[in-house]
Prior knowledge:
The chain has about 375 residues and is mainly beta. The protein has one helix spanning about 1-20, and strands at about 30-35, 50, 55, 60, 65-70, 70-85, 85-100, 105-110, 115-125, 140-145, 150-160, 165-170, 170-175, 185-190, 195-200, 200-210, 220-225, 235-245, 250, 260-265, 270-275, 280-285, 290-295, 305-310, 320-330, 330-335, 345-355, 360-365, 375, 375-380. Keywords: Signal.
Amino acid sequence: MRRSVLLTALVLTAAAATAVPAAADPPASGYTLVFSDEFTGTAPNTSVWNFRTDVKAGSAQRPENITVGGGLMTINLKAESPQYQGKNWSGGGLVSKRALRYGYYETRAKLPDVGGWHTSFWMMAGDGSTTFGSQRRTEIDVLENDSVNARTIHSGVHAWNGTGDGGYHPGSTYDSGLDLRQWHTYGADWSETSVKFYVDGQLRHTTPYTPNQWTHDYLNIWLTSIAYPQTANGPSTAQFDYVRYWQKDYYLDNDGPAAYGYGETGGWHDSSVDGWNHISPSRYATCHTAGNTATWRPRLGAAGSYQVYAWKIAHSGSDPNARYDVGHSGGTATKRVDGTAGTSGWVSLGTYSFAAGESGYVKLTSSGVGCARADAVKFVRI
Length: 382
C-alpha cells in the first residue's frame, strides 16, 4: 500500500512539474475561433504550415528541426559540425500558409534555457524562405526574446515597404518579471487603430497603428527560433503548445484578399484616389449613369449584432445621393450618402442582426449624378 501511494505521489508530482497552465483566450466577448493548431499529431501539418528555411544571423533554419508530439511543437536548436549552409548552429520554425488580419492571436510557449537563441511569435506576410519578402508591409511582434535575458520581452510593430523601411517601428522592450523558460501565454489583439499585447491574459503594451499612414496587409503567423544576435551558447529547445486566431470584425475591400465577397455590375473603373487603407486603390462607377452597383458580402463566422460602415470617399465629383442597401436578418435597410460633403471616412449604415455565413450584404447603387465610388465596408461586432 505504501509503495502504491508513493508511486502515485511521484506520478502526480511529475505531472505537476510539466503541467501547462490554462489558455488566456480573447480579452473580450464576441470573438470567433477561426484558425488553430493544437499540435496533437505526430508531425507538423504541412497542409497548414510552411517551414522556415532562411539563413539569418547566427543560424540556418532546418525543417527537420521541427517535431510534433505529446501535444507540443518543438523547435530543436542544434549545433552543426560540419557547418550547415555556412553556420555553426541551426534553428527553425513554422509559418502559417493562411494569411489573416484583424483579430486576436495567441500562443503558449516555453523558451530556450541557454543563451544566444532568439525566439519569436510574430506575424508578417511571407512563406518562411526569407524575412525580406517584397510583399511585406506590416510586421507585428507579439513576443521576441533573446534567451540571454530570460525575463525580457519585446513587443511592437514594424511598417515595411517590401524590402524597404516604412519608417515606423513603435514597440516596447521590458522586464516581464517572469521566467520565460517556463510556460506562459502571449497574445495580440490587432484592430484598425492599434495592437494590444498580452502576457498571461494581462495587457502589457499598446501600440497605435492606423491604416491611413501604413498599409495593413494580411499576415502569416510565424513560430520561430534562431541563433541571434550573438552565437548560441549551446543546443536547446523552444516549445509551443498551440496557436490560435479569433476574429471579431470583418472588413471587405474592392481588391486584395479582403475582396472575396466583392462584386460589381455596370461600368466600373480604377481610381487614383486612395481608399481606407494606405495605398489601397478605390473604384468609381461610370459617371452620370444610374444603376451601377457594387456589393460586399462578408463571410461572418458567428451570428450576432453588427454595426455596418461604408468608407465614403469625399470628392467634388462623387455621387451626392449614393444609395446603400444593407441586407440583414430582418430585411433590408437603405441609407443615402452624399459623397461630395465633408471628409473621407467611415459612415455608419446602422446596426443590424446577421446570421452566420454569407447571407448579409451591403449594396451600393449609383444615382446617376456624379460618380459613385466604392472602396470598403466593415461589420463591427457589437
